[in-house]
């Protein structure tokens, strides 16, 4: 049975899509069977995976409206994971869903039809706490929250965590916090260290060990329609996402995080 992880934060530009795409590819490189669901009408995860969002039909919209099955809509990618493509049609799907019964459960029901085919299903959420995001949180076992190491990073986190709590109470009792992921971390910048320390103070072991550095190769890869390990496998960004995949796999197996490299006692 697939484990479902929603990548969510209602703030835009924090690294959700970059994380969803590159974690999908890194897990696939570790021989996991992975499905990436693009639930953002911007369709960035679809394009970044090398799939043309304009031509993608049927897509996530048809699946949410039960006009197509997930199996019919998924597309295989060069990164060895499948994508359920998303584009502007998702906005129409969201509006139509508003009037349906059990509207928050539609994605969960649809993903259940392919749960045996994948080890991990990642969902790239839109930058808002709308019905699409609620569908993702209702379907998910865990929510992975990218946090940009910049000023105002913590802003909005409390409303996201309130939403997670409400979803757990009303829609999906099994929803866990997979972790807060520090993204766009810049070692040369004190601010990154400050934000990182603040996060650890507030959220303790909910903060993942893996840190994603600011790395220009990560920003370039989407315009080539490639995940980072295909675009530049030796970049710091690629290595960081391989590390994150390892951490996610260890969590899944109930293992403690990998030990930090032993330092020379002398
Ligand atoms: P979101 O999905 O949360 O809106 P994105 O993943 O699209 O955020 O990232 C926002 C922008 O920042 C994109 O242009 C992306 O290429 C860039 N970006 C994301 N992560 C990094 C990183 N670690 N280093 C450099 N640029 C990044
Ligand atoms: Mg995005």
TrEMBL record:
Q: Which domain of life is it from?
A: Bacteria
Stored Gene3D superfamilies? P-loop containing nucleotide triphosphate hydrolases
- Could you tell me which residue ranges the AAA domain spans? 3-177
User: Which Pfam family is one of this chain's hits?
Assistant: AAA_31
> Which InterPro entries has this protein been placed in?
AAA_dom, DNA_Partitioning_ATPase, P-loop_NTPase
Any idea what this protein is called? Answer: ParA family protein
Q: Which organism is it from?
A: Dyella agri
């Amino acid at each position: 049975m697939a484990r479902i992880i929603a990548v969510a934060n209602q703030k835009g530009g924090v690294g959700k899509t970059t994380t969803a795409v590159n974690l999908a590819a890194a897990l696939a490189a570790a021989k996991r069977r992975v499905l990436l669901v693009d639930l953002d009408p911007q369709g960035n995860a679809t394009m970044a995976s090398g799939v043309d969002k304009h031509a993608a039909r049927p897509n996530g919209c048809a699946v949410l409206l039960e006009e197509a099955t997930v199996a019919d809509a998924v597309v295989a990618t060069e990164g060895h994971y499948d994508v359920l493509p998303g584009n502007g049609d998702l906005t129409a799907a969201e509006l139509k869903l508003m009037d349906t019964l059990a509207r928050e459960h539609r994605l969960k029901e649809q993903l259940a039809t392919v749960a045996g085919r994948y080890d991990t299903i990642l969902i790239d959420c839109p930058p808002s706490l709308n019905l699409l995001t609620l569908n993702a949180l209702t379907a998910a076992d865990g929510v992975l929250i990218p946090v940009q190491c910049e000023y105002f990073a913590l802003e909005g986190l409390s409303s996201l965590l309130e939403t997670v709590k409400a979803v757990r109470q009303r829609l999906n009792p099994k929803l866990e916090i997979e972790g807060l992921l520090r993204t766009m971390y810049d070692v040369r910048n004190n601010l990154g260290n400050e934000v990182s320390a603040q996060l650890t103070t507030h959220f303790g072991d909910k903060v993942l060990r893996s840190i994603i550095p600011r790395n220009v190769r990560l920003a370039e890869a989407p315009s080539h329609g490639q995940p980072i390990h295909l675009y530049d496998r030796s970049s710091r960004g690629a290595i960081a996402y391989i590390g994150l995949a390892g951490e996610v796999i260890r969590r899944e197996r109930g293992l403690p995080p990998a030990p930090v490299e032993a330092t020379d006692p002398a």
